Amino acid sequence: MAAFSYRQKVLFQHCDPAGIVFYPRYFEMLNATVEEWFEAVIGCGFPTMHGPMQVAVPTAAINIAFTAPSKLGDQLELILIPTRIGRSSLELDITARSGAEQRLKATVTLVFTKHGAGKSEAWPDDLRAKIEKEINQVVENNA
User: Fold this and answer.
1) pLDDT of 76-95, one tens digit each?
2) What is the pTM of this model?
3) What is the largest CA-CA distance in the chain?
4) How far apart are CA 64 and CA 36, in angstroms?
5) Which of 42, 74, 121, 136 is the most buried (most CB within 10 A)?
6) Helix (H) or strand (E) run with residue 62 in it
């Protein structure tokens, strides 16, 4: 798969009084994209992680550029591409577009941790293998 696409219509709840997306709402959209990617592509959704597995993947860093405003009613496509996995970290590039126009570009860094640990933990082998497979597909597609 490599690139994962998540669609989000810009709703009234996302907008400021000027009718454009209030920037903190983009962070919610980014998180929804990450959550859906783990469920649909990696096969390990947040309910499983936060429930039986007792683990989490909190955001450690976000670097974001807002390149054009999104307005009420716009149809956004958020495209997630995994780019790097470390011992406990994962870097994802996410671009939001409406049609051909880019609206934002973000790099999100997540860390794997166990509930209550207070520190990062190494990715479990099964999750690491699935994530590495996705990263390798990105590399192959760009070769």
Assistant:
1) 999 999 999 999 999 999 99
2) 0.94
3) 47
4) 20
5) 74
6) strand 59-66
